[in-house]
Design brief:
With about 400 residues, the chain is an alpha+beta fold. Helices cover about 60% and strands about 10% of the residues. A hairpin with a 2-residue loop joins strand 2 and strand 3.
Length: about 400
């Protein structure tokens, strides 16, 4: 009676409610039977009780055969009416203790009947039960009000609760849909802004970098000075790597990787060990540990790991001069973990060097890591020093790769 399992076998919860209803209404019938005189017709002294109990037992099939149970309830009500009008004492006592024109289980039958989608048949059955219960051709204060309470009120209450539940569900669904639409609009606005930034970066920065690389190549080719050629080659290689990183960044921003820059002529996956070698050459104490191999880690992720190491070494050089630095990379099948730790400084920091940065290096690094779906954690270590941890995925779509 609690669920909408009309036309289907009841579930466990419905079975418990149906059994409880049978027990309650059966107890009421036994109580009324014990207080009333027996029937005196050919059907025997227990005819009234048996009819009432038959309706009670039929409640077990209420969710599977609601129309059938309602029809049997209607048939019992007709037998009670016929007995009172034409054969007193046959199916109802001649002088009953409780005046009722319907089986006591009628409200439970109507409550479940209202849930059916076939409204025409439902209202016909409820109308017939209401007529038999109220006896409009012979109204009385003993029968008519009780008939209304047993038929009309349960139907109206069930319809009201059902309509209220549907209204609440509709309002909840509308609120959830509005929230989803707001999220989609916000995501669409972010995607449009990303595409606009990608286009501007491609149109302006890539053009300038291309000119720089071409001019550096021309300078290195046309100069007779070995030092100039070496510097020009360094500029060209740096510009080429910058173009490769910019192309991947544009691909991530577009979320489809439609970068249009020319492929780089230099390797697109810089090795963090070169940063460690450069730091050692500058007199710093840096140890490097790598677990596993890059394997199928995408170039964009490897470049991001490279930037994490680069920014961490730069910060250690500025703010913790003379400190021992440890760089650890752990390559896994699902990504790579980067950890850079440094101890406390062994000498005073150079004010000019420490103040040369913009102050947003770690913030920009965190944005870059989050852009490819990774996480970055930074903070001081217990006992002095600093630690940078980055967890990066193995792959991020760029350059038109399939999602």
């Amino acid at each position: 009676m609690t669920g909408k399992h009309t036309g289907a076998w009841p579930n466990r919860r419905d079975v418990l409610w149906l059994v409880a209803a049978v027990a309650i209404f059966g107890g009421v019938d036994l109580l009324v039977y014990g207080m009333s005189p027996p029937t005196t017709g050919w059907a025997g002294p227990h005819a009234a009780l048996l009819l009432q109990l038959s309706v009670d037992v039929s409640l077990l099939f209420l969710t599977r055969f609601p129309v059938g149970v309602a029809s049997w309830t209607l048939a019992v009500a007709v037998l009670m009416l016929v007995s009172e009008e034409f054969a007193p004492g046959l199916f109802t006592p001649v002088q009953p203790t409780a005046h009722t024109a319907l089986p006591f289980a009628t409200p439970a039958v109507i409550t479940n009947l209202v849930r059916l989608p076939d409204r025409r048949r439902v209202f016909v059955l409820i109308g017939l039960l209401a007529v038999l219960g109220t006896r409009p051709w012979n109204p009385s204060w003993d029968i008519t009000p009780l008939g209304v309470v047993n038929t009309v009120l349960p139907a109206l209450a069930t319809l009201y609760l059902h309509a209220r539940k549907e209204l609440l569900n509709s309002l909840r669904e509308r609120a959830e849909r509005a929230e989803r639409e707001q999220l989609l609009l916000a995501e669409q606005a972010r995607a449009e802004e990303r595409r606009r930034l990608a286009e501007e970066m491609h149109d302006m920065v890539t053009h300038q970098l291309t000119l720089m690389v071409l001019q550096a190549g021309a300078l290195g080719t046309g100069s007779a000075d070995a030092g100039v050629r070496s510097a020009a080659e360094t500029i060209r290689q740096t510009g080429t790597r910058a173009m490769a990183e910019l192309r991947d960044l544009i691909g991530v921003l577009r979320n489809a990787g439609e970068a249009r820059a020319a492929p780089p002529t230099e390797p697109s996956t810089p090795d963090p060990r070169t940063l460690v070698d450069e730091a050692r050459a500058a007199g710093e104490t840096v140890s490097y540990v790598a677990h596993g191999a890059p394997g199928r880690i995408s170039p964009t992720v490897q470049r991001t790991a490279y930037r994490v190491v680069q920014e961490s070494l730069t910060n250690a050089r500025k703010h913790a001069p003379g400190a021992e630095v440890t760089v650890t990379l752990s390559y896994r099948a699902d990504g790579v973990t980067v950890r850079v730790t440094n101890g406390p400084a062994s000498r005073a920091a150079d004010d000019a060097l420490a103040g040369s940065g913009s102050g947003v290096g770690l913030f920009g690094l965190a944005q870059r890591v989050e852009l490819i779906g990774g996480t970055l954690r930074t903070g001081p270590r217990t006992g002095g020093g600093y630690q940078v941890d980055a967890i990066l995925p193995a792959y991020v779509p760029t350059r038109g790769d399939a999602r």
